[in-house]
Amino acid sequence: MSRKVFISHSRRDEQLVDRIDRALDLVGYDTLIYEWEDIPDEEPDREVIKQKMSECDACFVFPTSTVRDQKVTPAWLIAESSIAGDQNIPTAIFKEEGDSYEINFPYFDVLVVYDSADLPLQLQERMEELMESQGDEAAGAIGGGILGAATVGTGGAALVGALLGAALSSGGDRAPQVQCPACEWAFTYWGETNEFNCPHCHTPMDSNSHSLGED
Fold first, then answer.
1. What is the pTM of this model?
2. By C-alpha distance, which of 44, 24, 26 is closest to 36?
3. How confident is the model at residue 201 (pLDDT cuts 50, 70, 90)?
């Protein structure tokens, strides 16, 4: 197992990405933070990203507010999520709470709606707490063994859900499986608010009304 997470991001979000990197490092995961501008001219862009993505166990995508002012970055976030889908790599979209900027993502397993001021520190602190409370077994439990467990979602979403669950949950189940009423995309949702938009088609959703498995 490679124990890497591909970070799809804007280089302007360096501070956010650095803190995510440190949080994941606490549970034994490296981050692959690859700047597409560094791809050699003689190599096809998408093929290089495919190769880099194939080294990873998950993909975290950050369509932050800084992305909206850039001409190329939104297309690369879409391309990277698409490549993750082609390779069946579990993917989480991290959306800032209250941000109205939308990108149509072709593939994802998990949507995380977060407070931009709290997420990096929250991840780091909770990962540290997890390691302190569970010792050396924590990384292994979240890592290699979690793929076979039905923790959150199925298949690839289990790994992403396990990482996020340990970091973001302060008690209770905050990760319902939901399905968009318009495009019918099913995914896991993490967030303090019940209302959010589908990252695939932007349809307004509610975690209660659109939860799967509810009567």
1. 0.78
2. 44
3. very high
